[in-house]
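Q: I'm building a small set of examples for a reading group on sequence design. Run inverse folding on the following structure and report the sequence directly after it, with nothing in between.
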């Protein structure tokens, strides 16, 4: 930011103290006039659309806790179901990270390695390994299917029909209402879709030429903006230090947004690598485990503390 500000001030000083009133002033103003009509507003929109969006698992956990009907099961059964829900959401993230991050793959090179820390049970590992999917295929969506089946077993329709076809109110309590059940499944689908995009970007990496073109595009936009600032000073008829200071200060947020979004775009090319700027996947996994347990089984979290 300091470098771009110095460049703007240097161009202004060259014009005010070096070229103004000389024969070369006309050529300098022609350069300003050429850059004055160049549109630069679309650069920021292009940078923002270049970014991807993530989604946190606590959205599902909070929605589940809000809709959960305690009267649908015993206290022990409800606590066990909450623990299973938190564990399945954690497994969902870990299975995805194993496919996109080498660090997590080294932590859990095989599914059997997830049994000892209590992330998966031996039966669940057997289900994952005995599926008809290829061993190298992504299995991250399977825990989502387990959550759907888990809730579906406890879901009860508000009405039942007797032998005569008459509709009666269901005497059994449901884990959530019909509308809440639909919203919960919809939120699960959103979570799976958003994180599925992460896997898609890992499968089909963005070409390096796109990032190079984007970098050139941003720096060219900032350079043009430096000349556009000089054109505004010349048009105003005032070329003092105060005008230069105001223009530099007003342009700082514009340049800051472009450079910051460019830096973010460079990082998200492969955010799950081993560079210093990449995501700390180990921290993310630990964070998800703590947050999910705090939401769904707060009594267990207090015992651990």
């Amino acid at each position: 930011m300091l470098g771009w500000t110095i460049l703007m001030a240097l161009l202004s000083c060259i014009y005010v103290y070096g070229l103004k009133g000389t024969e070369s002033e006309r050529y300098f103003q022609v350069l300003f006039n050429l850059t004055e009509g160049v549109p630069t507003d679309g650069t920021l929109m292009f940078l923002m659309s270049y970014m991807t969006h993530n989604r946190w698992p606590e959205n599902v956990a909070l929605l589940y806790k809000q809709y959960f009907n305690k009267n649908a099961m015993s206290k022990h059964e409800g606590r066990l179901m909450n623990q299973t829900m938190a564990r399945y959401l954690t497994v969902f993230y870990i299975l995805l990270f194993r496919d996109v991050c080498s660090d997590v793959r080294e932590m859990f090179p095989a599914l059997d390695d997830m049994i000892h820390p209590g992330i998966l049970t031996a039966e669940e590992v057997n289900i994952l390994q005995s599926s008809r999917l290829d061993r190298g295929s992504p299995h991250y969506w399977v825990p989502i299917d387990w959550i759907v089946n888990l809730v579906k077993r406890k879901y009860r329709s508000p009405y039942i029909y007797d032998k005569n076809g008459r509709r009666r109110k269901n005497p059994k309590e449901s884990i959530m209402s019909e509308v809440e059940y639909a919203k919960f499944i919809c939120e699960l689908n959103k979570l799976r879709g958003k994180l599925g995009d992460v896997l898609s970007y890992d499968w089909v990496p963005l070409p390096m030429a796109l990032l190079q073109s984007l970098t050139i595009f941003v720096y060219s936009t900032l350079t043009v903006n430096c000349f556009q600032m000089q054109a505004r000073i010349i048009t105003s008829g005032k070329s003092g230090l105060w005008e230069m200071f105001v223009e530099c200060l007003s342009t700082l947020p514009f340049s800051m947004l472009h450079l910051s979004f460019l830096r973010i775009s460079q990082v998200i090319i492969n955010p799950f690598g081993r560079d210093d700027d990449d995501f700390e996947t180990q921290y993310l996994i630990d964070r998800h485990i703590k947050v999910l347990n705090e939401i769904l089984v707060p009594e267990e979290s207090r015992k651990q503390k």
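Residues 112 and 153 are 27 Å apart (CA to CA).
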